[in-house]
Amino acid sequence: MSVYVFRINYEDYYDFIKSEILSGRLRQGWGCEGTDLLSTDIEGFKNAGKTTGQWNETDDWFIRRHNILWIMCEMRTGDIVVVPKLNMRETGFHSDYFTVFKVTDEYRFETISVPVWDNFKEFGHIIGVNTLGSFSYSLDELTRIISAKFKGYQRPVNRVYSEVFINALEELMSRAKRNPDYAEGEDKLTLEALASSVSSARKEVLKKILDTVHNWQPGHLEDAVTQLFVNNGFLFDRRHIYNKEGGDIDISFTVRPSYSLMGDIALCASELFPVSEVRVQTKKKIGLDANDIDGVHQLLKSEGYDKAVNIVINTAEKFNEETREYAAMNGIILISGFEFADMLLKYGLVFTD
Length: 353
Fold this sequence. Notes:
Blueprint: E1 3-6, H1 14-22, E2 25-28, H2 42-52, H3 59-69, E3 80-84, E4 97-109, E5 112-114, E6 120-122, E7 125-136, H4 141-149, E8 157-159, H5 163-178, H6 191-214, H7 220-230, E9 235-242, E10 248-254, H8 261-268, E11 277-283, H9 293-300, E12 309-314, H10 321-329, E13 332-335, H11 337-346
Parallel strand pairs: 1-3, 11-12, 12-13
Antiparallel strand pairs: 1-8, 2-7, 3-4, 4-7, 5-6, 9-10, 10-11
Helix pairs in contact: 2-3, 4-5, 5-6, 6-11
């Protein structure tokens, strides 16, 4: 099963396209006569589009548009299509809902007269679909995970490769199948049941993320940590800093980059923000790490450790009690595997292996 994000026209054509969906036809635009993807090549697609006089675009634009639409030809019966900003349970436009469909018929081409476009025949690209459910972006943790990923799928037709997105969607559909009232929200579920559902789902998602982290190649963990910090306002400084005393810093960041609000505030009150560096020691471990105190020792032995924020990220499930006490005594921040997975989830870091 493949998953796709499909964006429809949200302006004057919204009600027209929604009415077609109610009849089982999910339509995409840039589909005038002569643009059938299965019977014409890119050159024919371009010529047909220009002939109508509706699209005054460059050759490169037509090539890109053809390639984007071609993804519809790859959809197979049983695949899943997610459409943002669409609620099939209510009338009108809903920017805070998405709808999930199952593909019932593969790509075909048939133009239709569009009432709001002087009955010009368009929107010929069609996928047959069956509605599985409409969900509020804020229904629960799963819908928040999915909707947060939409910003990465801005083209009219997008194939989804993100495991986080796909896993959250599979769990969402599983819960909706078990409970027909699931999509209705808190008015149909008790607060206790909802809290339990969210907590359980979040744990499952975090475990899957952590399992992925454990399968990363050497160096990938450091790359992900670097991306996580840089994406959130830190400035990368150096990697792999050692000394003869056993000090070891995997990654160093500056905490006062000029382009961040926190950086500007710090410059205005430097006496209150004496620390200008964050040092991170990473350990890729599975289960429990009997030697998790090693990372703490390595940071403490690095030169000038007392003038920096020091962090140990260990992908083990948790730290030993002795390590936690020793780190707290020396001002070292500990981040366990599940805590790190939670950060990847919370801050939308996209990673692949």
